[in-house]
Amino acid sequence: MASGDQFQRFLFEHSQVRGAWVRLDESYAQIGAQAPYPESVRRVLGESLAASVLMSSTLKFEGTLSLQAKGEGPVSTLMAECSHDRFIRGIARFDEHAVSDENFQAMLGEGTMAITISPEKGQRYQGVVPREEPDLAGCLKDYFERSEQIPTSFFLFADEHGSAGLMLQKLPGTSGEDRDLWDRLNHLASTVQPGEMLTLDSQTLLHRLFHEETVRLYDAEPVAFRCSCSRDRTLAALEAIGKDECYDILQEQGSIEMDCQFCHAHYRFDRNDIDHLFTGHTLH
Which residues pair with 118 in a beta bridge? Predict the structure, then answer.
């Protein structure tokens, strides 16, 4: 039976190759409903969301991992984020008049892409992702080989109803094991079809792909859409804008109103809120 909105790690026994699988259905639908995304933009966003969940398996602390891209193509901004406890959110900004059904690079055009790791305690880290391959999976493979020196492969799929992904990663210390294993596993994984990834549960899929290998499956984890915005975080953003600009907006509009770009939550701040933000006192 197929299972949606789940993440699962797995390991090839007696080897240094591990993997992860993800399927997103309801959470993908919730994120996709936040804007009138054309099918091609939904697909790019869906692949990015699946990739963010797969890469979050490398987090060894509480925090978030986000994939961010900016370009000069039809899709100007792409962002997908996953927390250590598998809550996801994402957004794409696009020119509806220029969107076409092209590959990842053509959709974004010239621009940059980065992976940002933000621990709840500690320093934020950002790595630049090369944009030299035609699809997101190839770009992420390049990133892990160049920046992390860890061979990692991604297989990403999305359609209008769901998204899914598979990640294989070769860890250090492979002496004594089957030297052809990594190439063989990647060849087998490359035969997967979109319909299999988007409909099959993890156990059925992995058996179909790797039935000659011994695969250890770890417990599945639920994945869900949840925005991390809050009134306090929005106030912090206003503080970063600066006192003068906030009071200028108050003078012009009487209040400051902000909407979350991810979930459309609405926040309104009056003069008392801004006074308290910058002076610690509220005027009555």
Answer: 64
pLDDT tens digits for range 189-201: 999 999 999 999 9
pLDDT at 222: 95
Q: Which tokens sit at 137? A: 């999976």
User: Would you kindly state where each structural domain of the chain is located, as residue ranges?
Assistant: 6-225, 231-279
Please name the fold of domain 6-225. Answer: Hsp33 domain (3.55.30)
List all residues 6 or more positions away from 137 whose beta carbon is below 8 Å from its beta carbon. Answer: 47, 51, 153, 154, 155, 156
> CATH number of the domain at 231-279, please?
3.90.1280.10
Please list, in sequence order, all residues whose beta carbon lies within 8 angstroms of the beta carbon of residue 245, skipping any fewer than 6 positions away: none
For 200-239, write each residue's pLDDT tens digit.
999 999 999 999 999 999 999 999 997 777 778 777 778 8
Single-letter residue type at 225:
F
Quote the pLDDT of residue 284: 45
Check if the beta carbon of residue 67 is closer than 8 Å to that of residue 48: yes
Q: Where residue 2 falls among pLDDT bands split at 50, 70, 90?
A: very low
Strands (E), the chain: 6-12, 17-24, 63-71, 75-83, 87-94, 111-119, 125-128, 152-158, 163-170, 215-217, 221-222, 224-225, 256-259, 266-269
Predicted structure pTM score: 0.83
Distance CA 7, CA 190 (A): 20
